[in-house]
Amino acid sequence: MTHSPRRAEEILQALRLKRPEDINLEAIAWLQGAKVDYREMDGCEACIHGRADVGRAIIAVNDAHGNLRRQRFSLAHELGHWEWHRGEHLFCAKEDIGGSKGRERGMSREKGANRFASELLMPEFMLKSALNDFRKFDMRTVRLLSDAFSVSKTAMAYRLVDLDFEPSLLASYSRGGLNWFKRSKSVGERWFLRRTLDPQSNAHDILHKGARDDISLSLMDADTWFDTEGADRYELAEQSFRVGDDEVMTLLVLKSEYMMAR
To answer: Which region is the signal sequence (predicted)?
Structure first.
């Protein structure tokens, strides 16, 4: 059975879906020949067993944690595998689905499936329309859009940085230091994030002192975040929030044109 892989946006447009609430993943899976089974799983977040020759698959999604948005991203991730890696039997752990392994450089199978999931759940053409209602990029915008598209705040923030809504970065830190970061295309590549959190940053207080999540963007010197010569001459805005016992997520929005890519 011949199969030609399609981008997520092509699938959505073929189905004439125009609003985030129209994205019914179980229906999309069924139309793609995949049955979805939610069940308690040990050691992985989701898996797929499929036969390319007949175009049929079973996708199992872990429902033990009760996190519906995580289940939704996991299902979209497995649909990415079914679309692009059809016929392979794949078991995806938590770190594969939207986690650090899926955000490493290079286009691995897991990173490709994560990108497909992001584009399926947060398609650019829908986001552009939704963004018309917002004037600035901060965590309020991220939270409202994550609710509208039924995804996590981290997934939405990552997608908006990737689409270069504003010159920005999203970074994950734990007590051991920097886990990963995403830089928008308009940010100059010479700006390297510090490997550990500066005590002057809000993220440091949230992670190490139990401070509350930031309710708004805060202006601070760029050298608080960047270990790059000349960073002390510029300012940026930070907004940080806790995502686990040992992880804090930070949105950085740049304010100076001299920090942009040239």
So the answer is: none
